[in-house]
Amino acid sequence: MRSPTILALAVLALTASACATAAPDASALAASSGSPAPVEGYDWFFQADDDVARLAYGLAESDDLRLGLDCRRASGRLSLGGVASDTARPEFHIESGGETGRFPARTEPSQLHDGVLLSAEAPANAPVFQRFRRVGWLALWQDGARQAYAPHPASAPNIERFFAFCG
What we know:
10 strands
């Protein structure tokens, strides 16, 4: 059992650190939060053909795609695609369960949305994707804002199906 003095010092230290004037890093706060809730209408959709698969987060049967992940069977490589504002950094800044990854992206004008289309390549075994595979959600940071993408219960197995396909 801990001594009351040590416990009191620990509480005092935590209280003092909470009063510090330095602003906390927003990404650190978000990374420590719990699992996000699914959003009505949006979900992770999985599609596989002979040698290619896609896991996409968006609104069913629409052009509203937030993030698309594509791969060739057993390649161990992902192609990332999404939209961003004209002023966004050309990268995918992804977080999942405390892991983060930044993947430099190419940009091109979007014909369907305001802003640009982003595309990038990444290893399927990058820590952020392996965490996504385990926890079932990820968040995308753009222009200082965090958008969390969580599956509905029926589609959650699609995440593992996709990564098993990609290798």
